[in-house]
Specification:
single chain, alpha/beta, Rossmann fold, Ubiquitin-like (UB roll), 3 domains, seven-stranded antiparallel sheet, globular, OxRdtase_FAD/NAD-bd, flavoprotein, FAD, oxidoreductase
């Protein structure tokens, strides 16, 4: 049996059986799901994607998104999950569901992905904090399996060693793939023997990493390892992503090669807005949402469209307000907007008229949007 559930977009869910449940640390656990033969095609995925899980918490239906730690070649769905509160929904998921139980799981989605290049020599650097390691695990497993020429560097931040999730797996992977993978652990609330590894992953720490770890390149004596970086992956909380993404950009990595996944609601722009726009007042907005037609007027175009609609109490779907998650994706059917930073839409989707309301500034005094994509 399958269900179509609206969660910003109409999403297909299927019943999957829990085949393994494991407590990882005092506040994290993993769930593994079996994919039956008749659903193998539905659950094909790319490294770095996530699924949504529907379950009961305190008598109510809850839908939460969780990144996969499994790689596509493993033919299974494995999730790493953090319990943020003893009374929260995720705590209920841990306490109330066991191996053998079935849960509604969505078909995989998400854009925190990389194009596979198995025949190229690549250098990929990843920064993760806490449970943000989950999609990085999926990426690293997949790259080590499919790209024999790619080398990987992981900088993994946690509060302390007790909360360091997947350490045994990471250490074993580093031992078996040591010529291609290097892992460095950082702790923000636990003193380390080497002061270098104490503190948060931020712009200052990145500068030290570049100069003390990613400096000499054995493959090219005339450049550094940082000079050879092809892609950067960042996963964690919003402020960490913003700080590291800007630091990487200022150290020469193009924005299109900096990929990030957000693990909480974040309302700031990742990169500073560098453009100025002519002031337009009394912007007329017509939009379709959940099959209904709406009309409103924005006082001006000083702020982005989503933020202004939310301030007027319209229940427009969103998650991050930072152009990362795609929840506010919609069609621009009339008028013009300026789409600022965009980590989500492809060039083809933009050409089809899709925009992200959270990153769009009105450029005409009338615009028409359609949030019902299906």
């Amino acid at each position: 049996m399958e269900q179509q559930i609206y969660k910003g977009k109409l999403t297909q869910f299927h019943w999957l059986k829990v085949t393994k449940k494991e407590e990882l640390t005092k506040n994290t656990f993993s769930l593994e799901f079996e994919i039956p033969e008749n659903l193998q095609e539905n659950f094909q995925f790319e490294a770095g994607q996530f699924v949504s899980v529907k379950f009961q918490s305190h008598g109510k239906d809850v839908i939460n998104d969780y990144s996969m730690t499994s790689a596509p070649y493993e033919k299974k769905i494995s999730l790493g999950i953090k319990v943020n509160s003893p009374d929260g929904a995720t705590s209920e998921l841990f306490k109330n569901y066991k191996e053998g139980d079935a849960l509604l799981v969505s078909e995989p989605s998400g854009r925190f992905t990389l194009v596979s290049k198995p025949h190229e020599f690549r250098t990929i650097v990843a920064f993760a904090a806490g449970i943000g390691i989950t999609p990085i695990l999926s990426h690293f497993k997949n790259i080590l399996h499919t790209e024999p020429r790619t080398r990987l560097f992981l900088f993994f931040g946690n509060k302390n060693s007790e909360e360091l999730v997947y350490k045994e797996w990471l250490d074993n992977l580093a031992k078996t793939c040591g010529d291609r993978l290097q892992i460095f652990y950082f702790f923000s609330r636990e003193k380390t023997a080497d002061q270098f590894f104490y503190g948060r992953l931020d712009a200052k720490k990145l500068n030290l990493i570049i100069n003390q770890i990613l400096h000499l390149d054995d493959t090219d004596e005339e450049s550094t390892i940082w000079d050879a970086v092809d892609e950067v992956l960042i996963c964690g909380k919003g402020e960490m992503i913003k700080t590291l993404a800007n630091a990487c950009y200022h150290h020469g990595i193009p924005k299109k090669n900096i990929h990030f996944e957000l693990f909480e609601e974040f309302n700031d722009d990742i990169y500073p807005i560098e453009k100025e726009f002519p002031l337009i007042e009394n912007v007329q907005v017509d939009f379709t949402m959940f099959g209904k037609e709406y009309h409103t007027e924005l006082p001006d175009n000083k702020d982005k469209i989503l933020q202004q609609l939310l301030s007027q109490k319209f229940s427009v779907p969103y998650s991050c307000k930072s152009g990362i998650c795609g929840s506010c994706e919609c069609y621009l059917e009339e008028g013009e907007v300026e789409l600022l930073e965009n980590e989500y839409l492809t060039e083809k989707e933009e050409a089809q008229g899709k925009i992200l309301a959270c990153m769009s500034i009105a450029k005409t005094n009338k615009i028409k949007l359609n949030f019902d994509l299906i």
